[in-house]
């Protein structure tokens, strides 16, 4: 497979009839490539909840297409009745996962389109929703490309980078964020070696990141999460790149569980840590990491999922937070499509995103 086959692979798209959303079922990778055609709100909610579609930007794009499709299937002729049902469905989708801000943010953006077209014929409103969903998707492609370029500017030929979870094309659209620089490096003939944390318990690193990088011919080595320390101690890591699900105004970053531990380790060894993500992942209304809701998932993901037999007694208690927050003091920078934001983050966010920070 070429780099482009990986970076341009389709993970989410509007169905040809514009009455469904087609998604690649990421839970089946790397063993099976299967697309699902989703038409109902329940199946769409389940796809997000079960991580069939996953990764903060990808969830936002999916939700936008989903609302365009669900609006089309909402028959109420009068606007008030239509909007009541539309809002109910939007809130329902928003309840599927709490941490990634892109879901709520894109639902809000679609809501704005509905209200802006309230006095127009229904056909025009529905067409505007589809156009907005496509615009959200295309904007993400452009943002990922820019983020990848800025991210690559932090690296030099021969560097080793450690990454966590999956923030590649599967989690976004094209290139990805935290993994985008690796594809770009490959395209430019630069050699970067990537340490891929397996990312317990859902194994996004093993199942998705090492899959995508290997298919694209990027040099990578899979390790268990608890091996990050040894490769850092051995001097085999020059930078940490991970994605983000929600960034607070002060630069605290929520990302896949294990990210903050990696950042603490890197801090000890003096290795720079970068979070890479689109500005759509910055929650300018959120003051700090303590205000980010953390998703807690089913303990069976720890005990039984991905194992042939249970790896703990059924009665064993488990705590399964899906995300953690990396304190902004541990970050060397946050890489966005507008540039690399360095500490102090609140001050520098205000310079790069004045319209959002000063609203
Ligand atoms: O639970 P997931 O797999 O949706 O978590 C994904 C992550 O934590 C990613 O790092 C993040 O969403 C960034 S994706 C560009």
Question: What would your notes on this structure say?
Answer:
- This protein has 359 residues and is of the alpha/beta class.
- Helices cover 41% and strands 14% of the residues.
- It contains 13 helices and 13 strands.
- It has helices spanning 3-7, 41-49, 56-72, 79-94, 101-116, 122-152, 180-187, 204-215, 228-233, 259-269, 300-303, 345-352, 354-357; strands at 12-14, 21-24, 35-38, 160-163, 193-197, 220-223, 239-242, 246-247, 253-256, 273-276, 323-326, 333-336, 339-341.
- The strands form three sheets. The chain has a seven-stranded mixed β-sheet. A three-stranded antiparallel β-sheet has the order 1-2-3.
- α4 (79-94) packs antiparallel against α5 (101-116).
- The chain is globular and about 65 Å long.
- 47% of the residues are buried.
- The structure holds 5-S-methyl-1-O-phosphono-5-thio-D-ribulose (MRU).
- Residues 51, 54-57, 100, 165, 167, 171-172, 176-177, 204, 242-245, 255-256, 322 line the site of 5-S-methyl-1-O-phosphono-5-thio-D-ribulose.
Q: What's the alpha carbon Rg, rounded to whole Å?
A: 20 Å
Beta-strand fraction estimate? 5-15%
Structural class: alpha/beta
What is the helix fraction of residues, given as a range?
40-55%
């Amino acid at each position: 497979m070429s780099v482009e086959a990986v970076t341009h692979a389709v993970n989410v798209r509007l169905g040809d009839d514009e009455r469904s959303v087609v998604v690649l079922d990421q839970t089946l990778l790397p063993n099976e490539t299967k697309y699902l055609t989703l038409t109902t709100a329940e199946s769409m909610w389940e796809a997000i909840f079960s991580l069939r579609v996953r990764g903060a930007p990808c969830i936002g794009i999916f939700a936008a297409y989903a609302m365009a499709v669900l609006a089309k299937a909402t028959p109420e002729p009068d606007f008030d009745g239509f909007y009541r049902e539309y809002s109910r469905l939007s809130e329902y989708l928003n309840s599927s996962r709490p941490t990634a801000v892109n879901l709520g943010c894109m639902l809000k953006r679609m809501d704005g389109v509905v209200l802006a077209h309230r006095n127009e014929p229904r056909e025009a409103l529905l067409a505007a929703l589809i156009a907005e969903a496509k615009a959200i998707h295309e904007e993400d492609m452009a943002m990922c490309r820019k983020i990848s370029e800025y991210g690559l500017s932090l690296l030099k030929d021969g560097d080793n980078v450690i990454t966590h979870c999956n923030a590649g094309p599967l989690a976004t659209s094209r290139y990805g964020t935290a993994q985008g620089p690796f594809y770009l490096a490959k395209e430019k003939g630069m050699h970067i070696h990537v340490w891929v944390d397996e990312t317990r318990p859902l194994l996004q690193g093993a199942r998705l990141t090492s899959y995508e990088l290997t298919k694209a011919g990027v040099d990578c080595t899979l390790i268990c999460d608890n091996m990050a320390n040894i490769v850092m101690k051995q001097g085999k890591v020059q930078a940490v790149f991970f994605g983000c699900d929600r960034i607070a105004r002060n630069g605290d970053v929520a990302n896949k569980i294990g990210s903050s531990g990696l950042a603490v380790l890197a801090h000890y060894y003096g290795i720079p840590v970068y979070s890479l993500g689109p500005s759509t992942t910055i929650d300018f209304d959120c003051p700090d990491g303590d205000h980010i809701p953390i998703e807690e998932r089913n303990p069976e993901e720890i005990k039984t999922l991905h194992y042939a037999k249970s790896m703990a007694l059924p009665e064993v208690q488990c705590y399964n937070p899906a995300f953690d927050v990396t304190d902004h003091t541990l970050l060397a920078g946050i890489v966005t499509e507008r540039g690399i934001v360095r500490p102090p983050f609140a001050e520098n966010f205000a310079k790069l995103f004045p319209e959002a920070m000063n609203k």
